[in-house]
Design goal:
It comes from Paramoeba aestuarina. The chain has no helices and ten strands. It is an all-beta fold. It has one domain: Alpha-Beta Horseshoe (Leucine-rich repeat, LRR (right-handed beta-alpha superhelix)). The strands form three sheets. The chain has a six-stranded parallel sheet with strand order 1-2-4-6-8-10, with no helix packed on it. Strands 3-5 form a two-stranded parallel ribbon. A two-stranded parallel ribbon has the order 7-9.
Length: about 140
């Protein structure tokens, strides 16, 4: 089957019980609205599509442990605070995020945040006591 010929997947109509959602290289072209993601999702991958808009990281599913939105057309600003406690990896590599400073206060479980390939100058803690031992990956 030629998957690229399929229309956009309307994530807002997926059951809230979907735990793993992967849509890669399928030319999905729509504004990503995170509050429409399945509420029980644990892993979401939307790599290398044509998703656009600003990513609202505050409204991610509460059980989410991995989110990858690499290689899309997502824009900023982003704020790495109020993320789900379960989130371990966040991949926003290769988007169109243009931001001078990205502030963070990440959950204890956070292992990796990949912001490579965006126009971000600095990543700084939101407040002095913010967890600074996360592996925040940002290459410019």
């Amino acid at each position: 089957a030629e998957w690229r010929l399929l229309k956009n997947v309307c994530v807002e109509y997926l059951p809230h019980t979907v735990a793993v959602l992967q849509i890669r290289r399928c030319s999905q072209k729509y504004q990503l609205i995170t509050r429409y993601l399945p509420r029980m999702a644990e892993s979401i991958v939307f790599d290398n599509n044509l998703l656009f808009g600003t990513v609202d990281l505050k409204s991610l599913p509460s059980h989410l442990s991995s989110l990858s939105l690499a290689g899309n057309r997502l824009e900023g600003p982003i704020r790495l605070a109020n993320l789900p406690e379960s989130l371990k990896t966040l991949n926003l590599r290769g988007n169109c995020i243009r931001q001078r400073v990205v502030y963070y206060d990440v959950p204890e479980n956070m292992e990796t945040i990949d912001l490579e390939g965006n126009s971000i100058e600095k990543v700084k803690p939101l407040w002095k006591g913010a967890r600074e031992n996360s592996r925040v990956v940002i290459l410019q």
